[in-house]
C-alpha cells in the first residue's frame, strides 16, 4: 500500500496528513473548502479586495474537479442476492449473529459477508448500500463512501485503496471472528 503525504503551512497554521491517497485527498478537500469559506467571509467584510477574485476562481475550479461519483447517492445492486440461495446463510441471519454498535462494525460485517460468505470480489459502495437496505431497522450512513473510508483509516478493518474493490483486512477478519460482540443465542 502506498503512502501519500501532504503538508500545508499557511504561516504556521500547519495541516499535515499521511495515509492512503484517498484519505489525504479527503483531508485536503475538507481543508480547502473550510479555507474558502473563511476567505469568503473575510471578503464580505471588505477586508481584502484582492482575495475575492481568488475565491471565485477556486470555487469554480473546485466544481469542475469533483467527480460526480463522490456526490452521487449510492444505488441498489439489483442482481445481488442476499438471501443465501438456500446453500449459504442469508445476510440478515449473518448480521444478526453480531451486536454491531457502530457503522464501522456494520461496514465490516457487510464487506466480510460479501467476500467470505458469497465469495465476491469487486465490492463497491453500491454493494454495501444494498446490504444496509436489506437489514430492517438500520439506516445507511448519510455519507456512506466516507464511512467506508473512515472504517479503513480509523480502524484498519477494510482496504479502500480502490473503492471499486473494497476488501476486508486481516485486522478486520480477526476483529469480526474473535473480538466483535456476539448476539445472544435464542436456545
Question: How are the elements arranged and paired?
Answer:
Elements: E1 4-8, E2 15-19, H1 21-44, H2 49-65, H3 68-71, H4 91-95, H5 103-117, H6 125-134, H7 144-155, E3 158-159, E4 167-168, H8 170-179
Antiparallel strand pairs: 1-2, 3-4
Helix pairs in contact: 1-2, 5-6, 5-7
Architecture overview:
The protein has two domains: 4-66, no CATH class; 84-179, Orthogonal Bundle (Arc Repressor Mutant, subunit A). The radius of gyration is 21 Å and the shape is elongated. The protein has eight helices and four strands. α1 runs antiparallel to α2 and α5 crosses α6 (125-134). The model is unreliable at 47-63 (pLDDT under 50). The chain is 52% helix and 7% strand. The chain has helices spanning 21-44, 49-65, 68-71, 91-95, 103-117, 125-134, 144-155, 170-179; strands spanning 4-8, 15-19, 158-159, 167-168. A hairpin with a 7-residue loop joins β3 (158-159) and β4 (167-168). With 187 residues, it is mostly helical. The strands form two sheets. It has a two-stranded antiparallel sheet with strand order 1-2. A two-stranded antiparallel ribbon has the order 3-4.
Instruction: Please name the CATH topology of the largest domain.
Output: Arc Repressor Mutant, subunit A
Looking across the biggest beta sheet, what order are the strands in? Answer: 1-2
Strands, total number: 4
Number of distinct helices: 8
Biggest sheet character: 2 strands, antiparallel
Percent range for helical residues?
Answer: 40-55%
What order do the SSEs take from the amino end to the carboxyl end, as H and E?
EEHHHHHHHEEH
What's the pLDDT, averaged over the residues? 80
Stretches where pLDDT falls below 50 for ≥5 residues?
A: 47-63
Amino acid at each position: 500500500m502506498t503512502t501519500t503525504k501532504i503538508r500545508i503551512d499557511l504561516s504556521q497554521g500547519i495541516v499535515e496528513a499521511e495515509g492512503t491517497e484517498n484519505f489525504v485527498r479527503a483531508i485536503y478537500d475538507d481543508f480547502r473548502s473550510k479555507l474558502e469559506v473563511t476567505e469568503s467571509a473575510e471578503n464580505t467584510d471588505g477586508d481584502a479586495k484582492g482575495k475575492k477574485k481568488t475565491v471565485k476562481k477556486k470555487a469554480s475550479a473546485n466544481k469542475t474537479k469533483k467527480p460526480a461519483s463522490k456526490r452521487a447517492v449510492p444505488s441498489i445492486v439489483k442482481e445481488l442476492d442476499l438471501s443465501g440461495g438456500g446453500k449459504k446463510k442469508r445476510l440478515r441471519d449473518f448480521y444478526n449473529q453480531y451486536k454491531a454498535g457502530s457503522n464501522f462494525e456494520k461496514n465490516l460485517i457487510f464487506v466480510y459477508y460479501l467476500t467470505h460468505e458469497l465469495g465476491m470480489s469487486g465490492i463497491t459502495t453500491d454493494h454495501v448500500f444494498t446490504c444496509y437496505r436489506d437489514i430492517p431497522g438500520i439506516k445507511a450512513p448519510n455519507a456512506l463512501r466516507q464511512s467506508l473510508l473512515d472504517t479503513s483509516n480509523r480502524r484498519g478493518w477494510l482496504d479502500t485503496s480502490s473503492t471499486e474493490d473494497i476488501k476486508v483486512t486481516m485486522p478486520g477478519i480477526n476483529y469480526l471472528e474473535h473480538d466483535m460482540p456476539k448476539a445472544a443465542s435464542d436456545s
